[in-house]
Amino acid sequence: MTIGTSSLTDSEIRGLVSRLDRPVVLVGMMGVGKSTIGRKLAQLFHLPFADADDEIERAAQMSIPEIFERFGEDYFRDGERRVIARLLESGPMVVATGGGAFVQPSTRELILGRGLAIWLDSDVATLVSRVTRNDNRPLLRGGDPVEIVTRLKTERESAYAEAPIKVMSNSGPHSETVNRILQELAEWLSSRSS
Questions:
Q1: Which of 42, 75, 137, 141 has its CA 20 to 30 A from that of 194?
Q2: Predicted confidence (pLDDT) per residue in 4-44, tens digit
C-alpha cells in the first residue's frame, strides 16, 4: 500500500525495512507528532512501536506529570534514559521519544550509538497549536506556551541537529510527514551503501 503521494511501493518499503538493523528513533520537540507518526511508520514497516513516555509511565506506575511533581526532572531523565536503553536493545522497531530525551547527552549518545535518529522538526506556531490541546505537559505548566515552546526549540535545536536525518512535520496530514520520512530514509540508506 502506498501512502498519500509516496512514490515508494510496498516492495520498496519492504526493502527499506530489510536494511534496518536497529530501531528507528523519532526525536524532536513536544507536539511535533512523534507518537502519531511513529505509530503510522511502524504499521507501514510491520515493526513494533514503542512510545518511550508510555513505557516510562508503565515502569513507574505513575504519570509523567506525577513523576516530575514528586521526584523532579533529574529523576525523570534518569528513568527515561534507562527505558530508552532497554527499548534500543529490542532490534528493529520504531520508538517515539519525549521532547527532552535527545537533549540529554547520555541519552543522545545511546540513541546515536544504537538507533537511527530521525529529527522531526516543525515551526513554533504548529507546535503551540498541538501542545495546547493536551494538559499532560509538565514543562508548559504555569507559563506562556508560545514563550516556552520558542525558548525550548531554540535551546534544543543544536542537540536535535545531531540526528543523521531531519524531516519537517508541517501542519498538514501526518501521512505527508511519513512520506517524507520514507524518502529521507531511502536516501540515507542508499548513501550508506554506496
A1: 42
A2: 445 678 888 999 899 999 999 999 998 899 999 999 999 99
What pTM was estimated for this model as a whole? 0.90
The three grid cell numbers given for residue 31, joined into one nine-digit string: 507536539
Q: What residue type is 188 in one-letter code?
A: W
Burial-class residue 115 by CB neighbours within 10 Å (0-12, 13-18, 19+): buried
Select from 102, 124, 110, 121 the least CA-distant residue to 166: 121
Coil/strand/helix, residue 80? helix
Quick one: pLDDT at residue 136?
59
Q: Is 93 exposed, middle or buried (0-12, 13-18, 19+ CB in 10 A)?
A: buried
End-to-end, the C-alpha distance of the chain in Å comes to 28
What is the three-class DSSP state of 85?
helix
- Cα 124 to Cα 20, 172, 179: the distances in Å are 32, 14, 22
